[in-house]
Amino acid sequence: MSESTVTTIGCIGAGYVGGPTCAVIALKCPDIRVHVVDMNAARVAQWNSDKLPVFEPGLDDIVKECRGRNLFFSTDVDAAIEEADLLFISVNTPTKTYGHGKGRAADLKYVESVARNIAKVARGNKIVVEKSTVPVKSAQSIADILKANRTSQNKFQVLSNPEFLAEGTAVRDLLCPDRILIGGEDSADGWRAIQTLCSIYRRWIPAERIITMNTWSSELSKLVANAFLAQRISAINAVSAVCEATGADVSEVARAVGQDGRIGPHFLQASVGFGGSCFQKDILNLVYICESLNLPEVAEFWLNVVSINDYQKQRFAKRIVNCLFNTVAGKRIAILGFAFKKNTGDTRESAAIYVSAHLLEEGARLTVYDPKVDPDQVIRDLRHVTGQPEAVRDQVEVCADPYEAARGAHALVICTEWDVFQTLDYRRIFAAMPKPAYVFDGRKILNHDELTKIGFEVETIGKRVRHVSSSHPAAITNGIGCGEPEPEAAAAAEADH
Ligand code: UDX
Ligand code: ADP
């Protein structure tokens, strides 16, 4: 018994996961035809153009090399299903916004619709691979739909093969992953399907990094991996609040803690809060599963990871208002960075959206600059989150240049850790701002000593920055909000200066 040969791969869903994953498979398997399909014609057109819908370092070159050779993008979903030996499902699985499980459970309507379509169209033997992040036992649901529609002409095996790529480093993660997880049915056919998928990855990934297991373990591992990563960020962000209140520096604490080999240094960068399409969604999904399994204590444990993240975003936004003399009404504030992290144009769940919404609510006028986010996306996100299109129209300006965004602003708010923000001409920026000129560094990426020397009032996460001037409220920050110092904190701050 051995694996079967794959000559054609189909992928349904040409998003952040499906597109880059299939581009790398096409690169590494030039003898396999890879057909990526999506019902969104505009998205497909972008994949076939010079401006891909997804910005990922290194992706353009791979797509250019493979597109038209063995990599194809189209809207012909049925054709992809018919011709493929192996089909990836990589459609979106957002958090449900309606009905039972609203706000928690993953919405599987897209996955289910794809499964029904495969059942209708497919003939012959197919391996169906669940790539989208889904709740435990979703592969079983897909298999049930396929089996209920099985005829003598078709036979299906369903595998779980979660994707661990991170945006901004997707190509590197796909070329050199820490591990590949493949879960399948515990049967001879299941084993053969697993081996078939392994044989594709073995072309460029060492065998010891390819882990096979049962389907449910594979599905759960993906949720747990994201929950663990997010939990580390919430843990260090919780510590950042303690640092601001005590005068400790969260970066120093993270370095000391991360040097312990058992803990490790990764994902300990305190920030304005994690964003992205996965962390919150996957944790809420895990919470929902725990609640459904009558495990309320476990559900609450994971829910706290999201609560601390909300608290962190709120804390940072409130601090901006407090420092700006408790009012930002009518003040111009520059939001530098709108993507949820650097090297991506993706804004899903970005902390910048939340911080901006809070400032808009307080009456601020925002100038937003991000090197990769489409201006229309900024407006769409803010309209969606505030529910006030007129306010967004009147109060928000998206700028093409950081200097333009900063001109006349009372404060710069760094929401995304773009490298370019480290090399801006801050003297020039300072000269064009009303005084006191503030910097709120939500990513801890700037040289705070340099900025204070220039004359900026600097506020950052998890650290008290020495202020040049002690005459205004920022000089006596108590770490919670610099506008309303407690007497003890004021005394401590004075001693600090
Ligand atoms: C994540 C997982 O890393 C990836 O394995 C999974 O497949 C998808 O979800 P992604 O959301 O693309 O990837 O980005 P990631 O690098 O994990 O960052 C998520 C958020 O956490 C970002 O907002 C980032 O800025 C923030 N973050 C990350 C921190 O605030 N501090 C850190 O130390 C690390
Ligand atoms: P991810 O980040 O998981 O890749 P995206 O939202 O970026 O998610 O991409 C998912 C893609 O799946 C979208 O482009 C969407 O149009 C596509 N999609 C959803 N349902 C279907 C379907 N039934 N048939 C084809 N494409 C679909």
Amount of beta strand: 5-15%
Specify the biggest β-sheet.
6 strands, parallel
Overall body shape: elongated
Helix content: 40-55%
- Counting DSSP E segments of at least 2 residues, the number of strands comes to 14
Strand order of the largest sheet: 3-2-1-4-5-6
Assembly state (oligomeric): single chain
The value of Rg in angstroms is 25 Å
The number of helical runs is: 19
Quickly list its features.
497 residues, alpha/beta, six-stranded parallel β-sheet, elongated, binds uridine-5'-diphosphate-xylopyranose, binds adenosine-5'-diphosphate
SSE blueprint and pairings:
Blueprint: E1 8-12, H1 18-28, E2 33-37, H2 41-47, H3 59-66, E3 71-74, H4 77-83, E4 86-89, H5 109-121, E5 124-130, H6 138-148, E6 154-160, H7 170-175, E7 180-184, H8 188-201, E8 210-214, H9 215-246, H10 250-258, H11 279-292, H12 296-323, E9 332-336, H13 351-361, E10 365-369, H14 375-386, H15 389-395, E11 396-398, H16 402-406, E12 411-414, H17 426-431, E13 438-441, H18 448-454, E14 457-460, H19 487-496
Parallel strand pairs: 1-2, 1-4, 2-3, 4-5, 5-6, 7-8, 9-10, 9-12, 10-11, 12-13, 13-14
Helix pairs in contact: 1-3, 5-6, 9-11, 9-12, 11-12, 12-13, 13-14, 14-15
The structure holds uridine-5'-diphosphate-xylopyranose and adenosine-5'-diphosphate (ADP).
